[in-house]
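From the shared-data thread, chain only:
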Amino acid sequence: MDPQARTILETIATLAPDASDAAETDDAAWLADFRYQTTLLKAFSGDPEQVHAITHLLVPSETGRLVIRLYRPKPGPLPLLLHIHGGGAIAGSIDGHDPALRALANRTGWLVAAHAYRLAPEHPFPAQLDDGWTALTALSARADALAIDPSRMVVSGDSIGGTLATALAARAVAENGPPLHGQILLYPNTDLRRGANYPSRKSEDGNIIDADSLERQIDLYLASDADRANPRVSPILADDLATLPPTMLVTCENDPLRDEGEAYGQRLREVGVAVDHHRIDGMIHAVLQMGGHTVATSRLLDRIAAWLEKR
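Structure, as tokens:
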């Protein structure tokens, strides 16, 4: 493991609540602890960079107004990167990802948008996907007003955000939505079936994610156990992957989700989707949010920028 990654894990261990009795903790208390631990990741992001402009768009949704934050690195018409934050769909926020989103906008030169999607268990799946659809269609409809280049729109996400990003890309095809020209999947969950058996789930257990916590996250995310086999939840089970756009897939060597992410990439290749896969050696889950403590984050941003330039 990269020494910088190991230092991050050691620091998190000193800050996180004692999880020795987590199995006996009721859902409300466990969720509060999980949300607190998710907020800790922002501490590793470093100082937020200055961005040319940050604005907010409020768009109607089925449960009220959906907030979309726009990070504009420079004036003029720009391509759009819609990013969906991680957090197991039960935690996380735009604010928690703010330093990473600023850096993403500055490094790529793209307009980065991020929406404050509803979280489970208060709003179980498919609320998160529906909010992504609302954000995507609203941004596309307002392309002229927002100085968005509609010929270059890409969706991205980290962790469960990557899962939602690829589900959103599939929905855009199935429902004749806005055309997406790529998807960026950063260490995504791709198989949420109970007890999914991937070697990295065992060999890297406890590196940011542990097996018991992962199962509990999924239980809180979904309305029923049957949803685990829904291809919009577990995209590796989808039959129609050939319609998905060119894909940038990033996995981390010391991440429990490594093998399922790479298995999804292989499925995409098998049906003819162009996949640019990069495994970050020695690195752990959530590296996008660790720019203040590891050089791997800067290298990741450079790789994303180079891939987007090809779009």
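The mean pLDDT is 96.
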